[in-house]
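Many introductory courses stop at the sequence. We go one step further.
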Amino acid sequence: MKRLCILLIALSIFGCNNKESLFEPGITVPGGSNPPPAPAPVPVPTPRPSATEYRYVIGTDLLATLNGPNADPVRSTASSNGDSILIRGEGTFSIKPSARGKVTGRGTFVHKNAAGRVLASGTWKAEKFLSFESYGDGTPQGKPSTYEGGLALIQIDMDDLEGDDDSLDHGEPDPILRVQSLLGHPPVGAHEGVTIEAGRGMTFDRIVSGSTVFIRTN
């Protein structure tokens, strides 16, 4: 009995002076149990970004809303011999990270020599999207925020309806259409319009006149 009293007194003193030690992490309280571990966080999958879609316009009637009542075709000349090409049309393209862009589009063209004689006229069709660099939206120029400037490179097929112009689209690779709009914040020295690398040394690389625009559709 005396030993039991001494043991109880010792336990009482130990408990009063060491209350916190009984509840330290990892110590099991008599008659109880440790709290269950916190569940591991469930990883949340990162959503894949959707494609950005654009409509591109080259010298068509839509541009009358930007540049007055008339929408003239875009004109470029070849620095090698003074030939010129007038082109108009429109289409769409979409850009998706880590994926090849998609493109549609078609229009018309007229090829003239330096004297103004028509050498060919026909149609063009977009075949392959190559690249697009945006210059930002058109709000600095007072245009809708969905209108953008930029530079698009599109590989095209050109079909001469007269069938006698050997200077266009008769080599490899197919001609490359470079469409540039100066909305947003374009680089210094840029010009609005199109140039065409047509193959066989024929490149319409000097922009003369005309308007283009990119319209973001999503």
